[in-house]
């Protein structure tokens, strides 16, 4: 949905920025939200990230914003206590300008954390961290190590967080729930594509039981639940110019889950020698070197704080999340491309094939992955 510069300015002006708003430009390739960078000039000149939060995907944006506020405030206190910089080492949510708020918004406990426009779109803002760098791909083991350290630290900072968070997307990494959606998608066959997908569907079917066996351990408490990020791809970490982690961003899916999902999703993203949507499957495989670097970085922060069941299942989590991603891309293709933004027809099927190639590569290196986990976890 395109908005005029005047409309964008009006939306951005609802938030408590310093300086005069001078420029609002689209930013980044996010699949879910629309993201803009807002620059202000004059006294207090700064930069901000303005996002239209996709409320079709996040049904409770106020609940999500409350989560983000609680989590970032918790981390801010920790960073300050340790002598760090709370404006750079964690996201800062930009609140609404009090004078721009209606009576009802003032009564809402999350009312100053977002703006709902006349079309029902939700907008939220945070401070842009100057000098920060993001990567779409992890090119070096050093970067993988740092990324692992970053997520490990994030989990450690939240290990004593006790407030119950809202579930921003129902059953996000719950494969039992994903199978319910999957069965329904196949039954509906909304885009008439199922008839051409026998092979791809068999990839999902043949692994269904082993995935459910893993998830049962979460359901019966063998694997504990913690506060986790749930979308740990490398582009969701801000690095400084030297390559050190500043902070973790995109906290939309921050909620209760297993720490394993964060690990698995990071491995899915960091270790891929190709792109998530590579058309050339020869490019796609899991780099064991990158796996080792990420694992070493992650466990440097979490070793001693994970349970035996978490350690035992750490390597498997990469199979679990990559499998889930194959299922989610394929399911969206079957549904007629309703969830992920696509750049061309068939994009979700290309993503499915590329992620499946990655899954096969992970499966074939599974024994080595377990050995690496053992080496750094104990
Ligand atoms: C989405 O928000 P973004 O674009 O970082 C998705 C993740 C997927 C990822 C695949 C809320 O992440 O779960 O792993 O795309 N986020 C949501 O690249 O569905
Ligand atoms: Mg996201």
Describe the 3D structure:
This protein is an alpha+beta fold. It is built from twelve helices and ten strands. It has helices at 5-12, 61-81, 103-107, 141-157, 175-188, 198-205, 208-219, 259-270, 288-302, 308-335, 347-364, 366-377, and strands at residues 20-26, 34-41, 47-53, 93-94, 115-116, 122-127, 226-228, 237-239, 245-248, 255-257. Strands 1, 2, 3, 4, 5 and 6 form a six-stranded antiparallel β-sheet that branches. The protein has a two-stranded antiparallel sheet with strand order 7-10. The chain has a two-stranded antiparallel sheet with strand order 8-9. A hairpin with a 5-residue loop joins strand 2 and strand 3 (47-53). Helix 8 packs across helix 10. The chain is globular. It starts with a helix and ends with a helix. The relative contact order is 0.12. The site of magnesium ion has 4 residues, from loops.
């Amino acid at each position: 949905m395109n908005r005029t510069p005047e409309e964008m300015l009006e939306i951005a002006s609802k938030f408590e920025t310093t300086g005069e708003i001078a420029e609002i430009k689209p930013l980044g390739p996010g699949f879910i939200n629309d993201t803009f960078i807002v620059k202000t000039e004059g006294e207090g000149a700064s930069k901000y990230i303005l996002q239209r939060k996709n409320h079709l995907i996040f049904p409770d944006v106020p609940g999500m914003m409350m989560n983000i506020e609680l989590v970032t405030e918790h981390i801010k206190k920790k960073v300050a206590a340790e002598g760090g910089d709370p404006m750079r080492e964690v996201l800062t949510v930009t609140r609404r300008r009090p004078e721009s708020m209606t009576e009802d918004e003032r009564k809402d406990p999350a009312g100053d954390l977002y703006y709902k426009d006349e079309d029902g779109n939700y907008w939220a803002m945070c401070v842009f961290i100057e000098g920060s760098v993001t990567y779409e791909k992890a090119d070096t083991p050093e970067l993988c190590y740092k990324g692992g350290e970053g997520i490990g630290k994030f989990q450690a900072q939240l290990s004593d967080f006790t407030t119950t968070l809202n579930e921003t997307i129902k059953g996000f990494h719950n494969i039992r729930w994903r199978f319910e959606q999957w069965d329904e998608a196949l039954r509906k066959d909304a885009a008439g594509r199922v008839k051409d997908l026998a092979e791809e569907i068999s990839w999902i079917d043949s692994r269904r039981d082993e995935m459910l066996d893993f998830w049962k351990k979460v359901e019966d408490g063998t694997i504990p639940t913690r506060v986790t990020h749930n979308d740990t791809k490398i582009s969701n970490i801000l690095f400084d110019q030297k390559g050190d982690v500043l902070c973790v961003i995109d906290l939309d899916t921050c909620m209760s889950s297993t720490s394993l999902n964060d690990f698995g999703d990071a491995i899915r993203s960091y270790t891929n020698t190709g792109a998530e949507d590579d058309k050339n499957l020869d490019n796609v495989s899991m780099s064991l070197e990158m796996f080792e670097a990420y694992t070493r970085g992650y466990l440097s922060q979490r070793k001693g704080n994970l349970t035996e069941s978490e350690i035992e299942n750490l390597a498997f989590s990469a199979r679990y999340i990559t499998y889930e991603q194959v299922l989610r891309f394929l399911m969206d293709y079957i549904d007629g491309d309703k969830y992920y933004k696509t750049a061309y027809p068939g994009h979700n099927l290309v993503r499915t094939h590329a992620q499946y190639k990655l899954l096969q590569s992970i499966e074939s290196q599974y024994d080595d992955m377990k050995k690496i986990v053992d080496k750094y976890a104990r």
